[in-house]
Design brief:
The chain has 19 helices and 7 strands. The protein has 522 residues and is mainly alpha-helical. The chain has a 3-stranded mixed β-sheet with strand order 4-5-6, with no helix packed on it.
């Protein structure tokens, strides 16, 4: 159940939205909005709970079309394994990215709005004297530190150096992005360690879905990997593997259903349930649904994102992740509701709605009832009455993250068993164990495994970006995927250094004298 949906509402009675970024704009600053001042609102621990709930809310803000997770799906188009038909995804797919891009601006604004909220909660908790529940105050402080680290981490994954501040915005300020990535990582190491010492191992009841000790440690491990602190990453992963309640599901698809939320493999996820609140839905389904799925089963007559046929065929035919990753069959309106199935023999192209079953398919001929598009099972909910009636949570940290992170850290450091994590992931997928590889060969294998394991989960582009630049590696993994896409589908695009980082929003650069655009985009 989505227990946190009841409490993590946009019921936060105030939100300091200064242009939703650190610098804001002067017009917003001179407004006198009708909400309670944060300086007077926080009186006791219960008020802190309401404050931190507002920070969680940005993780699954269904009422905003350009939401936190959908913008990241658009960024994934840069890799080429996933393709889109509307203008935004198409621009990224063809490499036509710009500092004026509306998806970049929306992601930036949402992230900094959440960071600003977190800063306010942290400030209030640290200044609160004699609360009625000191333990609750300390826990909320730890949750806010985790969430601030989470939002900052997901900014530096895409933009590298970004403006950094740990203070709530109260007046026109100009935070600098000089050494922003370095400052954020240092903050994460300190804050996540302290948060892990306070946060509980598990939650029950209405608190299910909040950040746990293991969520803090999983995010800490990922920060260590980014900073190439291999031994720290390995030991942190081993702590999670040895002491946490998390484990790999027997069935990979359980990571994306509604029956196994907030348990098992799922370490941290955004809470979603339209049945609890009609405004609490995601637009995952609407974007990934096959265009010819019947309306009364959740079809909306259009879709914008799906996987390519070439990427679908990267999976070994025995890979047990396939049913949890791709839609294998569905009833199609193109053949009077007949069930169609995926086949590598079906056509696929990059035109709008490419890869669906043919309009002139013979409903009595199974060889005609095939489609060649990699429609995504992870986010589609076949059978819902409306695209807005979504129930699936959004997993952000999974136990498989920890296992593959352990293999990477052990492989790079030369300490520990580098095959332990990756072979556990492969065993669950029904694939043979790896052994006897060189360091470079195992690094390649970890990259391939990560991409197949986390496809369509908003992680592939930043992961390939990081793996293409870390100190022990000379291989441009991102270029390999992009060029394969270009060559397979004859796309008019040239891979270049700009593909390795998103540009800072133009409004931020122009309005903040302390922000400098990334050198690749100057």
């Amino acid at each position: 159940m989505n227990s946190l949906v009841n409490t993590l509402r946009l019921s936060l009675v105030f939100t300091v939205l200064l242009a939703a970024s650190l610098v804001g704009c002067e017009e917003d600053l001179i407004e006198n909005p009708d909400f309670i001042n944060p300086d007077t609102f926080y009186q006791d621990s219960d008020d802190l709970v309401k404050g931190v709930n507002g920070v969680y809310d940005n993780l699954a803000e269904g009422g905003q079309w350009f939401n936190f997770f959908y913008n990241r799906y658009v960024f994934e188009e840069l890799v080429g394994y996933q393709v889109g038909w509307e203008k935004g995804p198409l621009d990224f797919q063809t490499g036509n990215v710009s500092p004026t891009d509306e998806y970049i601006s929306a992601y930036w604004d949402l992230s900094y709005a959440a960071i600003n909220r977190a800063n306010g909660v942290i400030e209030a908790a640290q200044n609160m004297e004699n609360p009625s529940d000191p333990g609750l105050r300390d826990r909320i402080l730890a949750e806010a530190k985790f969430l601030r680290s989470f939002y900052y981490f997901n900014l530096i994954r895409y933009f590298d150096d970004v403006p950094f501040t740990t203070e709530r915005t109260t007046e026109l300020e100009f935070a600098s992005n000089e050494d922003g990535k370095r400052k954020i990582l240092d903050m994460m190491f300190e804050d996540l360690q302290s948060a892990a010492n306070v946060l509980p191992s598990e939650y029950t009841g209405s608190d299910l879905g909040r950040a746990t000790r293991w969520a803090a440690k999983a995010l800490l491990m990922k920060a260590y990997l980014m900073d190439e602190q291999w031994d720290q990453a390995r030991s942190t992963a081993e702590d999670i593997m040895s002491n946490s309640p998390h484990y790999l599901f027997d069935d990979f698809a359980w990571n994306f259903d509604t029956e196994h939320e907030n348990m098992g493999e799922r370490i941290f996820e955004a809470q979603v349930s339209a049945s609890v609140d009609s405004d609490e839905f995601t637009n995952h389904h609407a974007h990934f649904v096959p265009p010819d799925l019947p309306t009364d089963m959740g079809g909306v007559g259009w879709h914008w994102l799906d996987g390519t046929k070439a990427f679908r065929m990267k999976y070994d035919e025995s890979d047990e992740r396939i049913p949890g990753t791709f839609i294998e069959s569905y009833p199609s309106t193109r053949v009077d509701g007949a069930t169609v199935r995926w086949s590598e023999d079906a056509d696929f192209n990059l035109s709008r709605f490419g890869g669906v079953v043919s309009n002139d398919a013979d409903p009595n001929n199974p060889d005609d009832l095939i489609f060649g598009s990699g429609f995504v099972a992870k986010w589609v909910e076949v059978g819902i009455s409306s695209e807005n009636n979504t129930e699936k949570n959004v997993p952000y940290l999974r136990y498989a993250d920890v296992l593959l992170g352990h293999s990477e850290a052990a492989n790079e450091s030369g300490n520990g068993d580098p095959y332990l994590g990756i072979n556990m992931v492969r065993e669950r997928a029904g694939l043979p164990e790896l052994s006897g590889l060189s360091q470079e060969e195992l690094r390649d294998a970890i990259v391939d495994e990560f991409v197949l394991e986390f496809a369509f989960e908003q992680k592939t582009y930043p992961f390939l970006k990081r793996m293409s630049s870390h100190g022990g590696n000379k291989k441009d993994y991102l270029a390999e995927y992009v060029n394969e896409f270009i060559n397979t589908y004859d796309v008019n695009r040239t891979h270049g250094e700009q593909d390795h980082v998103l540009p800072l929003p133009l409004d931020e650069v122009q309005s903040n004298p302390n922000v400098e655009q990334h050198p690749f985009w100057q």
